[in-house]
């Protein structure tokens, strides 16, 4: 029998329990940094060193982190379902946790590209410094979708969501667009779940809410799916 397609949209909350601070927490990674100073194309033009240092720090943090039970739990669901992870996160914890089909909406911290050739994506494990250049001779930058930039993978994500048999949201505030709009593309008949330690207001009684941190929430989700 063909496996059902389980589509999971994840955000920073799923990686928080691995020690990676979230965007909107009061003690979050961005606290003390104005987004406009570190996560826009204009910021990179104004102070490339500051922006590169900020992402070098994030790269080190991700390298030091390990997947948690939520990451490995979702990977385990591949035994029963055809699972596609659509993540807003730039870390690789889903992949290290065992998930085999991951779509990164906002880029990946261990990748980079040059300003002149954004389509030529390169691996990076160390730091990117001012003066580091790609094959075309232009400055290298993190392969991250910054604020004020388009989200190239959103159209592919929409196509994935349209094929979902089950749709799950984990660890995201549903406030960052266009990612937050993906739930609007889910067919009305498709079962929908939201897992978060603090679930935002949802004006849809058909959505099953699991108000727990991601690690325990994924365990509860698995129980519900097994019983469904």
Could you please describe the fold and organization of this structure?
It is a single chain. This protein is of the alpha/beta class and 228 residues long. The chain folds into two domains: 1-20 and 68-106 and 151-228, TPP-binding domain (Rossmann fold); 21-64 and 112-144, SIR2/SIRT2 'Small Domain' (2-Layer Sandwich). The protein has eight helices and nine strands. The chain has helices spanning 12-16, 35-38, 41-46, 48-64, 69-76, 93-96, 154-162, 214-227, and strands at residues 5-10, 82-87, 102-104, 107-114, 122-123, 140-144, 166-170, 192-195, 207-210. A hairpin with a 7-residue loop joins strand 4 and strand 5. Helix 5 runs parallel beside helix 8 (214-227). The mean pLDDT is 92.
